[in-house]
Design a protein that fits this description.
The structure is a single chain. The protein has 494 residues and is an alpha+beta fold. 31% of the residues lie in helices and 22% in strands. A 7-stranded antiparallel beta sheet has the order 3-2-4-1-10-9-11. The longest helix is centred in the middle third of the chain and has 17 residues. The protein is globular and about 70 Å long. The structure holds iron/sulfur cluster. Iron/sulfur cluster (SF4) binds next to helix 14.
């Protein structure tokens, strides 16, 4: 998972992009990059680590121009190299590109490029997309590219690039520097755009627009490309459309609560998930003394849950805000040690109490076991666990690093091969078996049907219901599975 920003303005943009990237830091802490275009050159800087450590006044001051792209990247095993940091630059015809997403046919793209003697310099999957686009553009015309050429090259790129991507590029079009933002036909990964005076900005999440005083104008539309130039009205071109399928997991777990996606705040969505979870839990007939969120993601859901069941919502965990998010760390060992670093408990909130702890999701199940060990050590009378998402039954192939099928904890409590939505009976059985295994008094998930009304009908919830909006052939699945198992030799998703 990654985050990007693109900006065009009549003044310099590097300092503002670097500030905006800090609002997207939760989307990736491994590396970051920022390149600009001043009409002649494409200077840039990429580095490992957090935005505040990589970009100082001198670096930002060395990046002139009113066009720029910034990017933050999430960590994966063995990929702590600057070569994989975005944005990427292609000399011919002179184009910068960054994306958030995951290309599922990376190997085929790499082979296709090799057949044309084009060698990749990184393991980042935006690089083959950029190479394909640049090649297609150069085939149409060697210089003085028009908007028509760019749209035609994008169509040809969409035809060979498979997966989920929200992307931005900067290049010269119709004789003018231009920023072009585009999103895959299904709009699986998020993207928004906004304006301020003569300037325009695109970003993975709206919080970046807020921080820089840009007014959000809407989402980047799936399958469309928008051309931006300062002081001119943006121009939208159709590239290729399909049934929109935005990722629900963004709102459940990944995005900041103050972000607005598809016209709604992530916060509102999490409140509603909490209410629905409370109603589901109430049917079980237990009583509790307090609701405690696992910080930070589950706070809104816990607040709404507590209101619904008329019990206090209390802070029981104190988070060390300087440690990384465990979900997006690489291997098992680093995940566990990150958790030990990350949370401490307030004993008085648990000791002798009947507590209901709310978390956002259970993926591998290791984090929740460690959490429960910590909770039981505080002497609670009973512990209930409630999750504001359905059980994760399937891996994600579209840019969320969600382990392999075999590692998914929920699968241990289901018959082999069960990938679709669970019936109410199946969900109840899974909850009972899993609660017993975890040693909690009850375990409650949302059902897939609970997502209706919170998210649009057209959505990707494949990790919960197995309905992948973009078919992944078994060969590609096997190759991704093997790559993940072998220490992630697969391309690094943006
Ligand atoms: S499979 Fe899950 S995490 Fe992946 S894009 Fe779909 S909803 Fe999001």
């Amino acid at each position: 998972m990654c985050g990007f920003i693109g900006m065009v303005d009549s003044g310099l943009v590097a300092a503002r992009i670097s500030t905006g990237l800090q609002t997207l830091q939760h989307r990736g802490q491994d590396s970051c990059g920022l390149f600009t275009f001043d009409g002649a050159r494409f200077p840039g800087h990429r580095g490992l680590g957090l935005v505040r450590d990589v970009f100082d006044e001198d670096v930002v001051g060395s990046l002139p121009g009113g066009f720029g792209i910034g990017h933050v990247r999430y960590p994966t095993i063995g990929r702590g190299v600057v070569a994989d940091a975005q944005p990427f630059f292609e000399r011919r015809p002179g184009v910068l590109m960054a994306h958030n997403g995951n290309l599922t046919n990376y190997e085929r793209l790499r082979e296709r490029l090799m057949e044309r003697s084009i060698h990749l310099l990184s393991s980042c999957d935006v690089e083959p997309m950029l190479c394909v686009f640049a090649e297609e553009l150069m085939q149409r015309r060697r210089r003085n590219h028009t908007s028509h050429d760019v749209v035609a090259a994008l169509r040809a790129t969409y035809a060979v690039v498979e997966g989920a991507y929200s992307a931005v590029m900067v290049l010269e079009v119709d004789g003018e520097p231009t920023m072009v933002a585009f999103r895959d036909p299904r709009g699986i990964r998020p993207g928004v755009w906004g304006r301020r005076g003569d300037g325009f900005m695109v970003a993975s999440e709206s919080v970046a627009l807020d921080a820089l005083g840009f007014q959000q104008m809407g989402d980047l539309e799936p399958g469309k490309a928008i051309f931006f130039r300062p002081g001119q009205e943006p121009v939208v071109h159709d590239v290729e459309t399909a049934r929109p399928s935005p990722c629900v997991f963004e709102s459940i777990y990944f995005s900041r609560p103050d972000s607005v996606e598809m016209g709604e705040t992530v916060y509102e969505r999490r409140l509603e998930l909490g209410r629905r979870l409370a109603r589901r839990w109430q049917r079980k007939g237990y009583d509790i003394d307090r609701v405690i969120p696992v910080p930070d993601t589950s706070r809104p859901a816990a607040t709404a849950f507590a209101e619904e069941v008329r019990k206090p919502c209390r802070e029981g965990f104190i988070k060390n805000r300087y440690s990384g998010r465990t979900f997006i760390m690489g291997d098992q060992e680093s995940r566990e040690s990150a958790l030990r670093l990350k949370l401490n408990l307030i004993r008085s909130e648990f000791d002798g109490q009947r507590v209901l702890v709310i978390d956002d999701s259970i993926v591998r199940g290791t984090t929740v076991r460690r959490l429960l060990d910590l909770i039981w050590a505080q002497g609670p009378k009973s512990v209930h666990l409630a999750i504001h998402a359905p059980p994760v039954l399937n891996p994600c192939f579209y840019g969320i690093d969600m382990s392999t099928e075999e590692e998914l904890a929920a699968r241990r409590y289901l018959a082999d091969g069960h990938r679709g939505s669970l019936s109410d009976e199946e969900l109840a059985e899974l909850e009972e078996l899993w609660a017993k295994d975890l040693g909690v008094d009850s375990l409650t998930f949302l059902s897939v049907a609970d997502l209706d009304g919170v998210f649009p009908k057209n959505r990707c919830a494949a990790c919960f219901d197995g309905d992948y909006p973009l078919a992944i052939p078994e060969g590609q699945r096997a190759s991704i599975r093997q790559d993940r198992t072998c220490g992630r030799l697969q391309p690094v998703a943006g």
